User: Fold this.
Amino acid sequence: MLRLGVNIDHVATLRNARGTPWPDPMRAAELAQAAGADGITAHLREDRRHIRDEDIDTLMARLTLPLNFEMAATPEMQAIALRHRPHAVCIVPEKREERTTEGGLDVAGQEEALAAFIAPLREAGCRVSLFIGHQPEQIRASARVGAAVVELHTGAYCDLDTEGRHDERDAELQALQQGARLAADLGLEVHAGHGLTFGTVGPIAAIPQLAELNIGHFLIGESVFLGLDGAIREMRRRMDMARA
Ligand code: PXP
Assistant:
């Protein structure tokens, strides 16, 4: 079965907009679990724009689902991950000026440094995942540096769909399909995420090698209309339909 990881970052975005304790990301994680989420994802950014250190403390203390801790490859984040030892650590590229994670990690361009960065996380028992594009050289490099998982960036696919550029979108989907096949052939577990909506999840969920999707912004936005429970259940239904 294709797992659904619910990213709760933007519950924290909404909370931080007012400086109140609500809405509470931990409460969202519990609701997501009740709605059928298989895991919770949270990205502690360097600038703490949404998830904060205390949120990670709370999630680690109270969450019974696996936590996928997203972070940049910095010494500060590595120390936090080693202190908490979450189920999974997903390493993402991070730029202060970006609105969201814009591209995949350049694994091929920093193989040695990433292998050294990943080693203690693996030794601590974390499943290390690398958030990358579908380029074969990035997938091959991910296998070489010792990652257990690659998460393929679906942002470009979703943007091309929104912009109505359907030929380019279909070419991007094909590249994601080929990337998933290559990653699985190399023994990597394959995940995907970024930008997914009710409209775009189907063709991605149908990629047979995928084990997990991580979805956040759309689900939190849609929960204004459907409730978080309703939004997650509808996403789950569409994922299952694509696999049927
Ligand atoms: N996967 C990764 C690695 C991410 O960085 C993000 C965004 O934080 C997501 C999935 C979820 O993307 P979205 O919020 O657009 O669904």
The pocket of pyridoxine-5'-phosphate is lined by residues 7, 9, 43, 70, 90, 92, 100-101, 131, 151, 193-196, 214-218 (CB under 6 Å). Residues 85 and 124 are 6 Å apart (CA to CA). The radius of gyration is 17 Å.
